[in-house]
Amino acid sequence: MDSLIVAAAQALAAGDALGAMKRVALRNDAPALALRGIAMAQLGDFDRAKILLKSATRAFGPRETVARARCIVAEAEIALVSRDLGWPEKTLETARATLERRGDHVNAAHARNLQIRRLLLVGHLDEAERLLGGLDPSPLPPAARASHELAVAGIAIRRLRTRQAHTALKRAAEAAQASGIPALVVEVQDAALAMNVPVARMIANGIERPLFLSDVEELLSSETLVVDACRNVVRAGGEIVPLASRPVLFTLARVLAEAAPTDVPRAALILRAFRARYADESHRARLRVEIGRLRAALEMLADIDATSRGFALTARGKRDIVVLAPPVDVEHAALLALLADGEAWSSSALAIALEMSPRTVQRALDALATGGMAQAVGNGRARRWMMPPVVGFPTTLLLPGPLPSD
Which of 138, 262, 314, 340 has its CA 20 to 30 A from that of 144? Predict the structure, then answer.
């Protein structure tokens, strides 16, 4: 391999995409095409990067299996960053196995890390943890070690293991600094923000207070009866009652828990659970039926007693009762949680991540766009969704020229 290709590869490894482009911008041989594709991906031009990498894959000969596999891994990384979750997983696994078999353990580990990051995005934590357990990061270069530790931290955060997450993020920060890649250092810093900002609200006795990740971990490990509005379950200690598929029952449980230990009037329960402004006898009859179903579902954790004006929730074993709610109560919060990563998502990728039908996701996105909480860029199959930019200051005051009062 000639010196320009080696120098371009070293520049890319150091995160210097422009330096790599200067060395191979005018070349069209297979290695140069591959390096240009990776450089364009680092610069954010994913469409051009994909075209260059596909051209490089075709240009490499049939015997250059390692080079072709590396191009496939680069394509998979672009697909992950651009949230193309429909990209074929088996193709990446085949490329990873080829690299492992041919002794390119660094790129094989990178391919494995991409698989783990995709599983994290779609919420398959058990499979991600299984793959992570078979990966030894010690022989990897600093950049690859940082990516590995970010994956470890991502799983720990999802599992509410805050101590393990802190340790992994510390190791990731050290590896990122050793790599000398500023973008990687910033990525680690952004990941650490999740540990230092409120992630939920606790509602008890009508009083709200924000909770950090460590607070949530402590709350869920206690014996408190928690009506979890983030996962739509009711839990206490090791007992969990899932109500995600029974929204009326969960709404009733949440309203009762927010008011506990006092009771809730029947009219208020009907309004929240059935969205009926005026309650007639049919609504009251339905409320009795649904309360009976909720009482049966929670019989091991709590009692629901009828009062003169409504119903009251009482935890068994003299436990406290709290509601764990998202930081803000908005419809389609799960969609907003994915869009909050700052990347541009396709509606099909959101449907895969949330395991919902594409049509349901599209209706939710349209509703969020109408409310100004999401925006679309592009048309047709190229349309992508993201959160709108937030302007936190009056930009008029920053324009050049004196103000009228000056």
Answer: 340
> Helix, strand, or coil here: 261?
coil
- Contact indicator for 52, 36 with CB cutoff of 8 Å: yes
For 229-253, the pLDDT digits (tens) are: 888 889 887 888 888 888 899 999 9
| pLDDT bucket at 169, cuts 50 / 70 / 90 | very high
Q: How many helices (H) and strands (E) does the chain have?
A: 18, 11
Query: Do 126 and 257 reside in the same domain of the chain?
Result: no
Indicate whether 391 belongs to any domain: no
Does one domain contain both 148 and 261? no
Q: How far apart are CA 27 and CA 36, in angstroms?
A: 9
Q: Please choose, from the candidates 135, 138, 115, the residue with its C-alpha nearest in 3D space to the C-alpha of residue 127.
A: 115
Q: Which residues pair with 310 in a beta bridge?
A: 265
Q: What stretches of 209-316 show up as alpha helix (H) in DSSP?
A: 213-220, 247-259, 266-274, 281-297
Q: Residue 331: left (phi > 0), alpha (psi -120 to 50), or beta?
A: beta
* Residue carrying structure tokens 């003299």: 318
Q: Residue 219 has which token pair?
A: 């709350």
Q: Where are the alpha helices (DSSP H) in 161-246?
A: 162-179, 182-192, 213-220
Q: How far apart are the first and last CA of the chain?
A: 65
3-state secondary structure of 26: coil
Question: pLDDT tens digits for 323-375?
Answer: 988 877 667 777 777 777 667 888 888 888 887 888 888 888 888 888 777 88
pTM: 0.77
Domain containing 287: what range? 200-325
Euclidean distance between CA atoms 96 and 116, whole angstroms: 13
